Amino acid sequence: MDSEKMFDASLxxxxxxxxxxxxxxxxxxxxxxxxxxxxxxxxxxxxYLLAIDSVETTAEALTEQGRIIPSPILExxxxxxxxxxxxPKSMHAALSSWSDSEDISLNQLLVNCLAFNLGEQFGVxxxxxxxxxxxxxxxxxGFMHVQPKRQQTSKIIPIKPISLIEGVMEQRCYG
Length: 175
Description:
It is a single chain. By secondary structure, this protein is an alpha+beta fold. Among the domains are: 3-64, no CATH class; 89-137. It has four helices and five strands, in the order H-E-E-E-H-H-H-E-E. It has a three-stranded antiparallel beta sheet with strand order 1-2-3, with helices on both faces. Strands 4-5 form a two-stranded antiparallel sheet.
């Protein structure tokens, strides 16, 4: 079977969202497996189809270069919600003591801690994305601290004349 027939760009995770980009409202399509790919169009369908085309074009280009395109990330619904976790005894004791003081189960404490950290990470990622989108709409690519270039000016400050020899004065300047 030909490898070209086996490739299916529709298996890639494509998200399409409506947003304001450079002052205009467009649909943006992004590919999770190819973070540098972003397509913009006036309709949801057009943005999605452009993303599919970009995945196919990227696959062809990488194949021609002898490189491999990242595989699609296939989401699995096989999660039971059950995880076995190994940790040091001292950590187990500390977490158990903490859960007792909160009057909740150790399991609930661990779920709360994981949910908090996952939410915090998601919030940070969303905030950074929002900031980058705002900056992108201003045609800037990132934060860059720029100091204005100082103009060099030379100032000559006269210093009190010095008498080296009686009757002869020497004028000196600073600067």
